[in-house]
């Protein structure tokens, strides 16, 4: 399990790097070779414009990685700041912030991201913005809950009575203790950000043609499913392997960092 | 008597959330970059048309007045009019909502009927090859998003085997593929949850007592273990209904199922923002209601929380 996860992640990272430097042409159109089955020349076949599916899948991973890393970093930063601040200071501010998070959590799954992406317009920047606008809530909730507990710990009381400022307590005495839980959460949520990005692109709300993305490729692939089933299978299997690897990576991280989770998948 | 008070208290805490949801959906139209009227009508629209649409959407009024009208109309069940077809949105919702509801309930049934028995079996065979197999399959299924599982099911059952219709909603069998797409992912999650929950319960002291009493293994399982193990599932099923509703957006698009999800995606493509707003609002409100209902149900079912506080 562990090796599978690491190998798959390493494989995709390597593929992205190799493709980047070898100058693969994901957007090269060849109308004499449309919807071809896998062959020695095109390992995963070609799409409806004769473009190499493998090159496009690898380019799609690159875009997907970029979106996932940016969104995870931004949402973590915003979510943790809000959560720790609210949890440490408590009072009215905490109530208001938590009320806001409950409103965001009232929208199931990626519905809110779909709504934001719809009104903001398509494109990779708006896609990232829409995912960031909705993604910070889980981190805020989680870090607030942890902070509430950590605030009562003896070492925090000691630091406070020695005159440490609120900022110092939050940054030096609380944050380091909740970072492992948040890292595990981040590992799992990276998979869901990846799925969300693909979902939005699938609906035509994310990355725009001719730029390759898994969601958009699947959308095209479904249209040509009757004549070229290899297209939808190839893209889907690649995506599944990566999502699975990230989820298993999260499991490994959870066991390593010894975070108790309640019945997480 | 006391539980009624708890229920009323619950409803009181939900109201601010509902109000927030209304604010956020109202704000959606105002988040459109530039002038929403330009985006909806395109640049070639005549000034008269633009003026008319602006008045129809109330965008020529101050924001607070707009919000007041929005809330007042919603209270009357009036979601406005589709810009594209000029049909009242309420009518569109009334047509689409039952379809989504049927799809979600069917998917939920599939999820429960497959997931819980598999989870029980997996827990009883914990450590054996059957358990390993179930775990491997369910982890893989859970990693399959709807927009990939859907096409695969379509390819296998509709195109290659020809057993089920590809898409649309012409006959009763049409519901099977979209419901399987949503339900199988759910069943994978429920399998894992049931397994973990049951294994935890089987380690409890009272199970050992029941066994020591000489009860048959069947009775221990049915009367003692399962009751406690399946209780947390009520909450999980409630939460999963949310992802079913959101997943329905994509599944309905793939299978041309005329529900709220398809309506939403169509409205986005046509830039019919009032319809988009209405769909988002209806799905979010359903989700809030389902969560509250499961919460109340859980309190009612679990004797430990019934009299707590």
From TrEMBL, chain A:
GO cellular component term, pick one: plasma membrane
GO biological process, one term: transmembrane transport
Membrane topology reported for the UniProt record: Multi-pass membrane protein
Alphabetical list of InterPro entries matching this protein: BP-dependent_transpt_permease (IPR050366), MetI-like (IPR000515), MetI-like_sf (IPR035906)
Family matches, as CDD domains: TM_PBP2 (cd06261)
Pfam families in the cross-refs: BPD_transp_1
SUPFAM superfamilies xrefs: MetI-like
The ABC transmembrane type-1 domain, residue ranges: 61-250
Chain segments annotated as transmembrane: 65-88, 100-118, 174-196, 231-253
Signal peptide interval: 1-21
Localization: Cell membrane
Keywords assigned by UniProt, alphabetized: Cell membrane, Membrane, Signal, Transmembrane, Transmembrane helix, Transport
Protein family per UniProt: Belongs to the binding-protein-dependent transport system permease family.
Full protein name: Peptide/nickel transport system permease protein
Native species: Methylophilus rhizosphaerae
Source organism phylogeny: Bacteria, Pseudomonadati, Pseudomonadota, Betaproteobacteria, Nitrosomonadales
UniProtKB/TrEMBL annotation, chain B:
Similarity section: Belongs to the binding-protein-dependent transport system permease family. OppBC subfamily.
One GO CC term, this protein: plasma membrane
Database matches in PROSITE patterns: ABC_TM1
Main localisation: membrane
Keywords, in A-Z order: Cell membrane, Ion transport, Membrane, Nickel, Nickel transport, Transmembrane, Transmembrane helix, Transport
Organism: Methylophilus rhizosphaerae
InterPro entries: BPD_transp_1_N (IPR045621), MetI-like (IPR000515), MetI-like_sf (IPR035906), Opp2B (IPR050045)
Cellular localisation: Cell membrane
Domain of life (superkingdom): Bacteria
The protein, known as: Peptide/nickel transport system permease protein
GO molecular function: nickel cation transmembrane transporter activity
Domain ABC transmembrane type-1: 97-294
């Amino acid at each position: 399990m562990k090796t599978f996860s690491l190998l798959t992640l390493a494989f995709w990272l390597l593929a992205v790097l190799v493709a980047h430097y070898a100058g693969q042409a994901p957007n090269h159109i060849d109308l004499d070779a449309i919807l071809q089955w896998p062959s020695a020349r095109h390992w995963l076949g070609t799409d409806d414009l004769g473009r190499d599916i493998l090159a496009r899948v690898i380019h799609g991973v690159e875009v997907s990685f970029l979106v996932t890393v940016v969104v995870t970093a931004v949402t973590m930063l915003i979510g943790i700041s809000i959560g720790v601040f609210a949890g440490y200071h408590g009072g009215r501010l905490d109530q208001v912030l938590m009320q806001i998070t409950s409103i965001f959590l009232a929208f199931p799954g990626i519905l809110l991201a779909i709504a934001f992406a719809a009104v903001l317009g398509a494109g990779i920047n708006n896609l990232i913005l829409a995912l960031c606008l909705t993604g910070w809530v889980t981190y805020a909730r989680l870090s607030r809950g942890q902070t509430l507990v950590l605030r009562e710990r003896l070492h925090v009381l000691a630091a406070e009575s020695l005159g440490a400022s609120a900022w110092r307590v939050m940054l030096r005495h609380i944050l380091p203790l909740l970072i492992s839980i948040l890292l595990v959460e981040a590992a799992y949520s990276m998979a869901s950000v990846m799925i969300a990005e693909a979902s939005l692109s699938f609906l035509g709300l994310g990355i725009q043609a001719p730029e390759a993305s898994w969601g958009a490729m699947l959308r095209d692939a479904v249209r040509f499913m009757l004549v070229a089933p290899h297209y939808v299978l190839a893209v889907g299997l690649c995506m599944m392997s990566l999502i699975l690897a990230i989820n298993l990576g999260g499991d490994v991280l959870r066991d390593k960092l010894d975070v108790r989770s309640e019945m997480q998948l | 008597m006391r539980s009624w008070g708890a229920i009323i208290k619950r409803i009181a805490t939900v109201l601010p959330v509902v109000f927030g949801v209304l604010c956020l959906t109202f704000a959606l139209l105002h988040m459109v970059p530039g002038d929403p009227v330009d985006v909806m009508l395109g640049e070639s629209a005549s000034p008269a048309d633009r003026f008319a649409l602006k008045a129809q959407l109330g965008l020529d009024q101050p924001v607070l007045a707009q919000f007041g009208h929005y809330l007042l109309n919603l209270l009357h069940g009036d979601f406005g009019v589709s810009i594209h077809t000029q049909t009242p949105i309420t009518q569109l919702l009334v047509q689409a909502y039952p379809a989504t509801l049927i799809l979600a309930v069917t998917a939920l049934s599939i999820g429960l009927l497959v997931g819980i028995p598999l989870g029980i079996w997996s827990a009883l065979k914990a450590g054996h090859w059957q358990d390993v197999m179930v775990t491997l399959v369910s982890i893989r299924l859970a990693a399959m998003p709807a927009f990939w599982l859907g096409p695969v099911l379509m390819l296998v059952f509709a195109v290659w085997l020809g057993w089920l219709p590809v898409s649309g909603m012409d006959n009763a069998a049409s519901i099977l593929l979209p419901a399987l797409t949503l339900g199988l992912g759910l069943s994978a999650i429920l399998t894992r949850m049931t397994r973990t929950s049951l294994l935890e319960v089987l380690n409890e002291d009272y199970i050992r007592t029941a066994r020591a009493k000489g009860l048959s293994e069947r009775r221990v399982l049915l009367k003692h273990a399962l009751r406690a193990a399946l209780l947390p599932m009520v909450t999980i099923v409630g939460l999963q209904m949310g992802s079913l509703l959101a997943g329905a957006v994509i599944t309905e698009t793939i299978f041309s199922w005329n529900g709220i999800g398809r309506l939403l995606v169509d409205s986005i493509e046509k830039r019919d923002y009032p319809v988009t707003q209405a769909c988002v609002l209806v799905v979010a409100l359903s989700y809030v209601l389902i969560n509250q209902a499961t919460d109340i149900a859980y309190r009612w079912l679990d004797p430990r929380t019934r009299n707590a506080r």
